[in-house]
TrEMBL record:
Pfam families in the record: M20_dimer (PF07687), Peptidase_M20 (PF01546)
CDD domains: M20_ArgE_DapE-like
UniProt KW 4Fe-4S keyword: no
Lineage: Bacteria, Bacillati, Bacillota, Bacilli, Bacillales
Family: Belongs to the peptidase M20A family.
Location of the Peptidase M20 dimerisation domain: 203-317
GO-annotated molecular function: acetylornithine deacetylase activity; metal ion binding
Species of the source: Geomicrobium halophilum
Claim: Metal-binding is one of the keywords in the record: yes
Keyword annotations from UniProtKB, A to Z: Cobalt, Hydrolase, Metal-binding, Zinc
Protein name: Acetylornithine deacetylase
Obligatory cofactor(s): Zn(2+); Co(2+)
EC class name: hydrolase
Entry EC number(s): 3.5.1.16
Length: 425
């Protein structure tokens, strides 16, 4: 087995330049929300023709997904935006444990280009780093899991249980891509998601909901502003209430996994738009908010709580009590996750992590959300996240540490070797 692990390491080194080219290729697709189709089609072709995997494209079905606890409501469709699953079938009778390797291809918008030193869609290599939107989060993970499998394939190694390579969408806004794979029947004895956690294993994460608040005013030309009410100014009354809620929710007793975090539940006003003319008092203003919640809390209960908080704040304002805000929810309706450290997936991952790095594996709890909830909360599939290191995630000049991508690739290959009882055929 030691000799086989050395062969894996050597094969990953041998294929490294090809892996970098693959990461650059997928990094250059502008796969923001609604624009994932081209990259998904590329990956479907790659899975089928370069890796000889049995490949399926799945169009998420809103009607079917909406019946599931983990569904997040959307205001768009899925035509031309498939989820892709490639199946690496076991050799003969199943002996090992089956495995899902899942990565998302959707990325957040790049923001103003003048804030970037590098082309956000250029996948530029500078030293030991690659720069670009989504390179760290999490196209680096896609490259790691793909080339972990490719290294094993090149050595004539086959798993003794099925391995599913999944390329999903909307991890950054709903998670419905992961949900679609489960509803299509793709389940396994374990799942790994290569989120870029600096080669630490995820043990906990917060839940997330997204809300939209619309405020109405009374429009007029600024010459008659005294007779009008600005929706933008009234929106700020409610934004202040959101800020007060943020303080309130973080002062409540914390979940044990976040007890040492000073501010685990981010409540963020991330978007605002209103008015239509600089010389007119705004008649309409809308802002959108991200609200965090602890593992074990019900997303719907938090929605009700935040809604009531804003209704109470509006009742104290002369205008808003007569014209209350319109509060709606879309996007994330996500539960938090708290995992136990004695899961077999952690035992195997910790073992191979130490073999590759020489160090004990560390655990982390994140104040963000990931797709791991679909396996660990909504289904009986032990799962965690483990991926590369990097910086500026969701910000300008996002980058991934390339040596860490190589180490994650080797760790994943060795995980498959042990978890799936892979053998050289």
């Amino acid at each position: 087995m030691t000799d086989l692990r050395m062969q894996i390491k050597e094969k990953i080194d041998e294929q490294w330049e090809e892996q970098l080219e693959f990461l650059q290729m997928i990094g250059r697709f502008k796969s923001t929300l609604g624009n994932e189709g081209a990259l998904q089609n590329y990956l479907a072709d790659y899975f089928q023709n370069e890796m000889q995997l049995s490949t399926e494209k799945i169009i998420p079905d809103i009607k079917e997904m909406s019946k599931h606890q983990g569904f997040s409501p959307v205001e768009w469709g899925y035509e031309g935006r498939p989820v892709v699953v490639g199946t690496w079938s076991s050799a003969g009778k199943k002996k090992g444990k089956s495995l899902i390797l899942q990565s998302h291809v959707d990325v957040v918008p790049e923001g103003p280009h003048e804030d970037w030193r590098y082309d956000p869609w250029g996948a530029t290599i500078d030293g030991n780093r690659m720069y670009g939107r989504g390179i760290q989060d999490m196209k680096s993970g896609m490259a790691a899991m793909v080339f972990a499998v490719r290294a094993l394939q090149s050595l004539g190694i086959r798993p003794q249980a099925d391995v599913y390579l999944e390329s999903v969408l909307e991890e950054e806004i709903t998670g419905n891509g992961a949900l679609a794979t489960l509803l299509a029947g793709y389940k396994a004895d374990g799942a790994l998601i290569p989120e870029p956690l600096g080669q630490q294993a995820l043990i906990g994460q917060v839940g997330v909901i997204w809300m939209r608040v619309r405020v109405k005013g009374a429009a007029a030309h600024v010459e008659r502003a005294s007779a009008a009410v600005s929706a933008i100014e009234k929106a700020y009354v409610l934004i202040q209430a959101i800020q007060e809620y943020r303080t309130y929710t973080n002062e409540r007793p914390k979940h044990s996994y976040f007890k040492d975090h000073p501010h685990p539940l981010n409540v963020n006003v991330g978007k605002i738009y209103g008015g239509d003319w600089a010389s007119s008092v705004a008649a309409d203003c809308t802002f959108e908010v991200r609200v965090g919640l602890y593992p074990g809390e019900d997303p719907q209960a938090i929605k009700d709580e935040v809604s009531q908080w804003l209704v109470d704040a509006a009742a104290k304002d002369e205008w808003l009590k007569e014209e209350p805000p319109e509060i709606t929810y879309y996007g994330f309706h996500a539960d938090g996750v708290a995992l136990e450290k004695d899961l077999d997936v952690f035992k195997t991952l910790g073992k191979v992590h130490k073999q590759v790095t020489g160090e004990e594996m560390q655990f982390s709890a994140t104040t963000a959300t990931t797709d791991v909830r679909f396996y660990s909360v909504y289904d009986d599939i032990p799962a965690t996240c483990y991926g590369a290191d990097g910086g500026n995630m969701h910000g300008p000049n996002e980058w991934v540490d390339l040596p860490s991508v190589k180490r994650v690739t080797e760790t994943y290959a060795n995980f498959i070797l042990d978890w799936c009882q892979a053998e050289k055929i």
